């Protein structure tokens, strides 16, 4: 485990408890589970300013590029775009902010559907690439945006919350930026069940991906975070699987993603298969 002096013990972001049990050690970091509410997170961890410096090359790790990210997330983006368009009646203003937008794939998808969509990301390389595509993407963080409260009709975060030092604060910021009746859509991993399943055979050792991933969210914990931030009408579902570049990962994603969707449909939304990514959509109350 990493014990550098600058590393910080971290209380639970959801309930504030410091009573946590270790559940894994990966990449020199300890992953713990809150004994009070079940949130899984990295503790101790590097300070926020150090974490930020590591993200400059995040989107190009292992040879990834704009095309590979488009393939990875294409199905997720298309499904999410249709869901958001269905939740809005098509009349009046439709302004959207995609947080952690990367190369701008979802911004482009929503602009093609007539939305006034823009993005923010803290990687200079991907912001420059998005700008070269003519997309309105800003360099920075959600907290650093100078935008009036209620300025957006929708806020999206695809695989972003698990990277943030304070997910609850990010959701609260998104709530303030949304207009009354506005929509938030988030997608997060749920890695813990897979790690527990594979641990007896010595596998699953790199699935949490710390320190890039600081949190892991079960559907129940994600819903509690959204409620704490003020959101209502929360709906959680498996969503389309991603399409990884490596064949084995792609087959696994398609197999388990398809199984999760099938079980969710067969049980009329009552069962969410553990271990696959989840999408949640919710509203800010109108008044």
Quickly list its features.
287 residues, alpha/beta, Rossmann fold, 7-stranded mixed β-sheet, 4-stranded antiparallel β-sheet
* Average residue pLDDT: 89
Cα distance, first to last residue?
A: 47 Å
- Main sheet attributes: strand count, strand direction, barrel closure: 7 strands, mixed
Number of strands: 11
Q: Helix count, per DSSP?
A: 8
User: What is the molecular shape?
Assistant: globular
Question: What CATH architecture would you give?
Answer: 3-Layer(aba) Sandwich
**Low-confidence sequence ranges:** none
CATH superfamily: Vaccinia Virus protein VP39
CATH class: Alpha Beta
Please estimate the helix content.
Answer: 25-40%
Cross-sheet strand order for the largest sheet:
6-5-4-7-8-11-10
CATH topology name = Rossmann fold
Element-by-element helix/strand order:
EEEHHEHEHEEHEHEHEHE
Q: Rg, please? A: 18 Å
Number of domains: 1
Write the SSE topology.
Elements: E1 20-26, E2 29-34, E3 40-42, H1 48-53, H2 66-87, E4 95-99, H3 105-112, E5 116-121, H4 124-132, E6 137-139, E7 152-158, H5 167-177, E8 178-188, H6 192-198, E9 215-216, H7 219-228, E10 232-237, H8 247-266, E11 278-283
Helix pairs in contact: 2-3
Structural notes for this entry:
The chain has 287 residues and is of the alpha/beta class. It is 32% helix and 22% strand. The chain has a single domain, classed as Rossmann fold (3-Layer(aba) Sandwich), CATH 3.40.50. Helix 2 packs across helix 3. The strands form two sheets. It has a seven-stranded mixed beta sheet, sandwiched between helices. Strands 1-2-3-9 form a four-stranded antiparallel beta sheet, with no helix packed on it.
